């Protein structure tokens, strides 16, 4: 690569090209963040030209270096780089920055723009996704690298901002990264001392280097506009294999701008036509908009070819490894494909047994069988594995000297756990899961939302799913959380009622490749509802099905999770009173609402029957199911500390109480 290093004049021409594309894209959109791209253009150019390994024609190459723009507000920096370095992002897309259906949205979006590794913008997320990617790489290296033939030897690079480092999720993730000695991480910190409101000294005066050193990181402070210093720091990061590296690059926001350099006003607004004209005059740039000098095109063309040559060398190396390691290659393919073996559904259905148990325990049984069958599966808990039943018994723990393990100890770091799960899923070859109490899903909500936005296959194991947590009291008893999860687009939420529903929910999660799945599970034991010879696991994919039926039902009783047993008991009492009752299980309201209206009406008739829903949570989410004339027996208040049997009685969730409420309502 050294032979292709440009002289100082050409390097500056390349940097100015990056800056001009970024600021003109923002100006044309009349919206965006020009200051960060101008301030970090030097760092980005040195990284991409001298160190970053990629092939723009093969953006999913497994051994590419990952580059994350955690400071996603500076998206025009990334779009300029992607265009200049040969990715399928035409110049016209840069001109359409932030416009309808363009591939250059306001913040980078995974799956939309080639070369974008994750959706960033919410600060701290890209930083933390990178930790997940770094762990995934270490895991894949431990499984597949062979002595003398390391098929995976790349790095995780990111540009991070003051805002990223202020967010708590980054602190959580940084702490775990240091603990795991993730020497494959090299983050470049845009230390420009500017945030939206002004100088960072308004609220951020800590010694960042000392903080990260305490986490176990290597820290290097440099002038972020000195190309030689940037290169030396990145090289030092590559050389350090036992610690993640944070390069504190002291930069000036809007570097070079005649009057805006160093000003917080350049953070989130266009520079303006007059300022851009003066900048062009200052650097000797033509008036033509979105201009790219021929010297820059020619140099980058040669550089791109050298990167493609590196890819070709790796491809030959991989083919040699494949021939020498057929068993490893078979496992590689299974993990990359997230392969599910023949008969896996039956095996999981059998694994949960036929005894009454808490659905968290049943999920644990399913998990053990899945781990045997699906090598891609791995995960852990936010320090709650014994309660969440998330520990894989026949596997070791992930730690700094054992990445062959499959069990994660995330510590009490729910937010980072969610972001790391996203990074694991983004890396490829892994189906990650993470567990915590459902009440703490609030701590994970931003990362769950981003998993849904990106369409990632992540499994959440949310146990202790209702007031029936019991004695821990209302601080630990989720009431509104199930409803809050169900309104996240593209998140599939299950609240299974018994053994077979729990197994079928897991089966769905394993087959569902384009979005996350949340399993909401009980602490307390629940009765067995279904019989294996009559239960159809594929019905779970429809979200709702009939348990007991009659012709022309007068009442349709709908329950989910632990309240399905209550509904069945209430139904028996109502039948004794002469009512014609249909019993319905709705383990996934989100899936049911996606079914054709004909199917929905076949389960819950729109006319001719009284509709009743029973769930120990807020009632508002059920309005779309039972309508304004229906009855919801829910809980629109916080819980209380007591044994769960007492709570059921006090809050009206026994079969007799539900039947009595229905009869009173019918009068």
Structural summary, described in words:
This protein is an alpha/beta fold. The strands form 5 sheets. The protein has a 6-stranded parallel sheet, with helices on both faces. Strands 1-2-3-7-6 form a 5-stranded parallel sheet, with helices on both faces. α1 (8-29) crosses α3, α14 (359-373) packs across α19 and α16 packs parallel to α17. The radius of gyration is 28 Å and the shape is elongated. The N and C termini lie far apart (83 Å).
Summary, kept brief:
The protein is of the alpha/beta class.
Give short descriptive properties of this protein.
alpha/beta; Rossmann fold; 5-stranded parallel β-sheet; 667 residues; single chain; 3 domains; elongated
DSSP helix fraction = 40-55%
Q: How many domains comprise the coordinates? A: 3
Task: Count up the helices.
Answer: 25
CATH architecture group name of the largest domain: 3-Layer(aba) Sandwich
Beta-strand content: 5-15%
Q: Within the CATH hierarchy, at the fold level, what is the topology of the largest domain?
A: Rossmann fold
With strands numbered from the N-terminus, the spatial order across the biggest sheet is 10-9-11-12-14-13
